[in-house]
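Researcher: I need the complex structure. Ligand is pyridoxal-5'-phosphate. Inputs:
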Amino acid sequence: MGIKENLNHIKSQLPEQVTLVAVSKTKPINEIMEAYNAGQRIFGENKIQEMVDKYEEMPKDIEWHMIGHVQRNKVKYMAEFVSLIHGVDSFKLLKEINKQAKKHDRIINCLLQIKIAKEDSKFGMSAEDASTLLQSDSFSELNHVKIVGLMGMATFTEDMKQVENEFKFLKSTFENLKSLNTDLNIISMGMSGDYELAISCGSTMVRIGSSIFGARNYNN
Ligand SMILES: *Cc1c(COP(=O)(O)O)cnc(C)c1O
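Model: Output:
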C-alpha cells in the first residue's frame, strides 16, 4: 500500500477525539508531500535541524511537532514555528523554551514527558516531579509556555500487558494532574505497534511513523 492508502486506513480507525501526528523523521520531502496531499497537516520530527529544514521547504499550513528529546541549546532554531513540543522533561528546558518563545512574541504549547517505561533509555520525569513543577511559583511566572498535556513512551516489548499497564499509568497521572491544571487536555501515547491499545487506555494523540511511511532506513 502507498502512503495515502496507509494514512486513510489509519484515519478510518481513529476515534474522533484522537489526533494523528504523522511521524516523518528520516523521510524525504516528496514522501511527506504525499501525506500532505492526502490531507495530513500535523507532522512529527525528532531532530530539530531536520524539522527546521523541512519547515523551510514545505507548505506553511503544516503544524510541526517536536517529538524527540530536546537539547536546550537548539530550542532557538524552532521557537518561531513549532506548534507542540512533546518531550519536555525538566524545568530548565521549559525555562529556555519560554525565553525563546518570548523573543518571537509567542506562547509555545508543551507536553510534559512522563517516564512510564521500565527501560533506562527512555527520557521523562516522574509523576511526582511533574506535579511539583505544575504547582511551582517559578512555573507560574513563565508566560510564554503552556503545558497542554502529557506524553509517554511505553517499554519496547512484546509483553502487551506491561505496555497496557504503562499506558494506564500515564492516563491516571493525567487525571491527577488535570485537577491541578485545567490546561491539560492531551495524552500523547501510542505508536505504530501499540496505538490501538493506547487509544483503549485513553490516548488523545497518537504518533505514527512506519505504518504510514514504511520502515525507516537510518543508513542513508
Ligand atoms: C519514531 C517515533 C514514533 C513513531 O514510531 P513508529 O513506530 O514508526 O510509529 C513515535 N514517537 C516517538 C517519540 C518517536 O521517536
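Model: Summary of the prediction. Residues 23, 25, 46, 67-68, 153, 191-193, 207-211 surround pyridoxal-5'-phosphate (CB under 6 Å).
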